Structure formats: C-alpha cells, structure tokens
C-alpha cells in the first residue's frame, strides 16, 4: 500500500475488526485500503481536506471530519454518504467518537457534541 508523496496524510485509522484502514488526506479525500489484499478499496471524495476519520463501532460506517466544517457518516460498503452533520462555522480540527456521540473541535475553539445513529 503506497500513496503518492504529494498527498498530505492527516490521519490513519484501522477498523477495529476488519482488514480495513482509512487514510485521511488534505487533498479532499479518504482512501480505504484493504490490508489483507494490500489494495485500494474505495476513495471517498470530500469538498475540502479531511483531518480525521473514525470508525463508528464494528459497523462499516466511517465518520469523517472535514475542513469545510461538516461531519460526514459514510457507508463504506455502498461507498456513499449516509448522513451529514453541520453546526460549526470554522474549520474542524479534531473529532472523537464514543458509542453514538461525536465530539468535535474547530479552529475558533468551539467544541460541539453530536449524536449519530
């Protein structure tokens, strides 16, 4: 598994029980790699850079934290967005998930808590 050296990687996270790794880039995408086959499975396009990705439990749902201020929930089997959460006015910089709660922090210092299902 290798990416171009021009891509700026912001975050890497393994799925808790599957052979998947999500790699977040500042060039508007998240790449999902199959670690068993060592090949790209999907590319999830975003309108801006992605600074963090987290798996939502054991499901094949990936939550992404984008510089456009939007949290996106992806069904990685279907390669599509299933939810978008807004509420920040500034660039998102970090995110943590616990069960169905997402805590986000933006560039202006605001912290918000969202519930996802």
Overview of the structural elements:
The protein has 117 residues and is an all-beta fold. 0% of the residues lie in helices and 56% in strands. The protein has no helices and eleven strands. Strands 1-2-3-4 form a four-stranded antiparallel beta sheet, with no helix packed on it. A hairpin with a 3-residue loop joins strand 2 (20-25) and strand 3 (29-34). The mean pLDDT is 90.
Strand order of the largest sheet: 1-2-3-4
Shape: globular
Encode the helix/strand succession as letters: EEEEEEEEEEE
Share in helix: under 10%
**Low-confidence segments, ≥5 residues, pLDDT <50?**
none
* Percentage of β-strand residues: over 45%
How many helices? The count is: 0
Overall pLDDT, averaged?
90
Sequence-ordered SSE layout with sheet pairings:
Elements: E1 9-14, E2 20-25, E3 29-34, E4 39-45, E5 50-55, E6 61-66, E7 71-75, E8 80-85, E9 92-98, E10 101-106, E11 111-115
Antiparallel strand pairs: 1-2, 2-3, 3-4, 5-6, 6-7, 7-8, 9-10, 10-11
Care to give the gist of this entry?
This protein has 117 residues and is mostly beta strands. 0% of the residues lie in helices and 56% in strands. The chain has strands at 9-14, 20-25, 29-34, 39-45, 50-55, 61-66, 71-75, 80-85, 92-98, 101-106, 111-115.
């Amino acid at each position: 598994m290798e990416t171009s050296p021009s891509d700026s990687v912001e975050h890497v996270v393994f799925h808790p029980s599957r052979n998947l790794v999500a790699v977040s880039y500042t060039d508007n995408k998240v790449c999902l790699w199959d670690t068993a086959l060592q090949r790209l499975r999907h590319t999830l396009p975003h309108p801006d850079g992605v600074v963090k990705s987290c798996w939502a439990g054991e499901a094949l749902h990936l939550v992404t934290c984008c510089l456009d201020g939007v949290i996106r929930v992806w069904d990685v089997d279907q390669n599509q967005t299933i939810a978008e959460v807004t509420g920040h006015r500034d660039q998102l910089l970090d995110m943590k998930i616990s069960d169905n709660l997402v805590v986000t922090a933006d560039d202006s210092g605001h912290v918000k808590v969202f519930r996802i299902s």
